[in-house]
Amino acid sequence: MSEPTVFVVDDDPGVLRAITRLLSFEFVVQPYDSPSPFLDALRPDTPGCILLDLAMPGVSGLDLQARIVEAGCQQPIIFLSGHGSVRTSVQAMRAGAMDFIEKPWENDTLIGTVRRALERDREARSRRDATDSISRRVASLTPRESEVFRHVIAGRLNKQIAARLGTAEKTIKVHRARVMHKMSVRSVAELTRVAEFMGIRPEP
Amino acid sequence: MRNVEIELERIANRIRMREGFLACLALCSCGAAQAQDHEILLLQPGKQDSAEYDAIEAGLRSEFAKASIDGTRIFGEFVDLDFRQPRDRDIFADYLRAKYGEAGIDAVVALSHDSVSFVTEHRDAVGNVPLVYTARAGFAVGAVPQSSAVVMPFAPSRTVELALLLQPDLANLFVVSGASTWDEADLPALRGALSRYADRLSIEYLTGMTPNDLLDHVARLPSSSAVLYASLGETGTPSRELAEQISSRANAPVYGIHDSDVGRGIVGGFMTKSEQVGAELARQTLRMLRDEYPAVADVPGGSFVVDARALARWGLDQTRLPPYTDISFAPASIWSLYQGWIITLLVLVAVQFALIVTLLIQSISRRRDRLALAETAHRFRLARVAGRVGIWQWDLENDRLIVEPELRELLGYDTVERPNEQWSSRIHEDDLPKLRRAAHDHAQGLTPSFELQYRILDRNGNVRWLLSRGQAMVARNRLIGTAIDITDRKREEDERARTQAQLQEQQTELAHLGRAAMAGALSGAVAHELNQPLSAMMSNARAALQFLARGPADRQEIKDILTDIESDGRRAGEVIGHLRSLLRRGEAQFGTVRLDVIIDQVLRLIHSDLVNLNVKVLHDRAIGIPPISGDSVQLQQVLLNLLGNACDALKSVDPRDRRISIAVSPCASGRVRVSVADNGCGLSGGNAEQLFKPFFTTKRSGLGLGLSISRSIVNAHGGSIWAENNRDAGATFHVELAVETATVAAADRVA
Known about the structure:
The complex is a heterodimer.
Chain A: E1 5-9, H1 13-24, E2 28-32, H2 35-41, E3 48-53, H3 61-70, E4 77-81, H4 86-94, E5 97-102, H5 107-140, H6 143-152, H7 158-165, H8 169-182, H9 188-198
Parallel strand pairs in A: 1-2, 1-3, 3-4, 4-5
Helix pairs in contact in A: 6-8, 7-8
Chain B: H1 2-30, E1 39-45, H2 51-66, E2 73-79, H3 86-100, E3 107-110, H4 113-121, E4 131-136, E5 147-152, H5 156-166, E6 172-176, H6 181-194, E7 202-206, H7 211-219, E8 225-229, H8 239-249, E9 254-256, E10 268-271, H9 274-289, E11 296-298, E12 303-307, H10 308-314, E13 326-328, H11 333-386, E14 389-395, E15 400-403, H12 405-410, H13 431-443, E16 450-457, E17 463-473, E18 478-485, H14 487-549, H15 555-583, E19 591-593, H16 595-605, H17 607-612, E20 615-620, E21 628-630, H18 632-650, E22 658-667, E23 671-678, H19 706-716, E24 720-725, E25 731-738, H20 741-750
Parallel strand pairs in B: 1-2, 1-3, 3-4, 4-5, 5-11, 6-7, 6-8, 8-9, 12-13, 20-22
Antiparallel strand pairs in B: 10-12, 14-15, 14-18, 16-17, 17-18, 19-21, 22-23, 23-25, 24-25
């Protein structure tokens, strides 16, 4: 697992240098003075956060944000803005921006915000890891097993399920055991929680 | 005896003279002659008027010369026809014998009948050498041994032909034949020759008459008559005088047959030139000397010869003359005689005529000039009075100003009245030195003309403005010029200038207000501009502190940080300066302005606004745009205004599709155009011009002064500003400004 990195993108070299200097005491910092090399370097699996100047020539901060999301990157984005207009801020937040820092910033605020952003990225990343493993399990279910899964979390008995699906109770029993095994749960209650987590709806 | 002696002496004298003359001639013609090939003795009748014989002799000599017989020497002797006694002839013969005998000469040429007979008689006296003599056609030539005759043509009939041509009505011909023996001998031949005209003419022969009878007779001839003078007159009455007398007395034209008679009053005739006779004699002599012995030789030719004066006297028509007639004494001779004089005279007359004409023209033109001058003076006076123009003169040497009547009237004086003091002391004390300097500069040729406006007190002590224009006269120490009263004009100008100044002041104030308002609107943008360096400074400062807090710091790192802080601080200062200059109050300060630079400054100023609105700006930078002359602050104001308007117009457009494009392009005649185009809501209403009127606005907030102020700024720059809707969407504002003059001049030089 690589070190979380703070990506800083600002076209103002003075500002870029200052931020890099300040954050380098605590974090790994990657400064970029224009969006393109940054976009080339950014990978979805790189942990870290992104500091974006909202007002850059060529590609505006909002455009860049859209491109980052398109690229499937979910690192938290912190916008640095001169004087944030409400409208732009709302747009940015809607698009997933984590925070706004107005220039001139308090250094502690900046550092704190970056710290929080990295924390959030770490949490999100572990959550995404968990989700990923459950998803893989769900994906390993056969269609019949998925059907049985949804009937089980609906609280139905093997006999009832067998009747619904027009098969033997014994067969259902085998399916249920396989689902429980594949999903790595020991009880129906656990299975129901997983289903909730994954957004899988019970068969009505 | 005594007579004989005298006679002999006379003859000897003549011989001496003659010989000397001929020798002289021969020497002249021969020069340094070699051996004298031939020596010729020429015998001539002594008593005759020598013209005819001189001509024959000349012909003889020239023929000998032509024959290139070097050193042919001609001796001449006169055979007098009036030897009184036969002894005289013997004495002469002795003389010849003594002189030419014993092979002294090679040939003898005898010109007259007497000469021939003398030589025939005393052939031994000349050494029995060949004899050549003249004979007349139709005249019997005696048998002279070792001799040859040159036969002169005898064609009296051809002379009659001439008479018939000139007098077609000729009826009577009177033939005058002399009393000489030759004449008598000629007569039968003459009769024979003329017999052919017997049927056409009544021919009467006037022979054997005394000269007086003859003259009386010819004076009373009937009409339609002519006289043929055919006498040789070799003896007796000198024929030449007779020819003249007959010609003057006769009442009818007289014709002749001898060329020696031409010029003595006869009309003319068919004649043989004596020179031709001489030439033939020479040729015949040469033939004999070459031992050819032709008996006779004819003189070739003969021609019609007339006397123009006689033709005129008888009123005979020249055009009737046969071709190739030799006309003597033609009146044209006056021209040939006096050609030089005539030309000189004509030139003199022409020169005089030219002089007279020139003087006449001068006189006329002088008169015209005088009239024109008077008229000009009159017109001039009219113009001066009508235009209220006064005339002054300034004697710079004596510093004396002379004011002419019209100018006095202009200043409120009578035409004769003058102020108590000098005119110059009435000129405004501030203007007088300027006036003097201008006058002296012009008088010294430093300036091409003298022109000045100055103040002067009129009679009532009121200040009047005069405009004087002058020119240095003859000597450079006198000026003459005009003066116009421009007091009213000046007053109007002052008024206008005051109004203009007020207007300018108001406009400046308005522009300032406009900028102030804009500065307010820009505060956000300015904040952004300040925030950038401030943020950087803060972070840098903290970083430096942390470096220091961590222990012994890297000096280079600290130095870098402090350098950055310093430059960011300067940057912040510049932003403040820019803002202050925008808010500056005061007059325009023109300088060299690069439009791209101004556009960059303005874009930086409104950068954050553009970002907030998500407006994409396309600044099309053309290469080689010349700088313009203008006030950069005011021009920034115009661009700020245009870009601000464009942003406002874009608010109704989807944020992802907001565009502004700025283009700078050169256009014709030294101007540059800045176009600001947006894809916003465009201009509502038809009239784009009303946008530029004060207090016209389409926005909810706004004074409606922005474009009005912009236009006044652009106009003050000598440029123009206008707007138009785009074809697809939005509007474009154009600003055209003049390229800096120095640049234009440079471009012209390059071109």
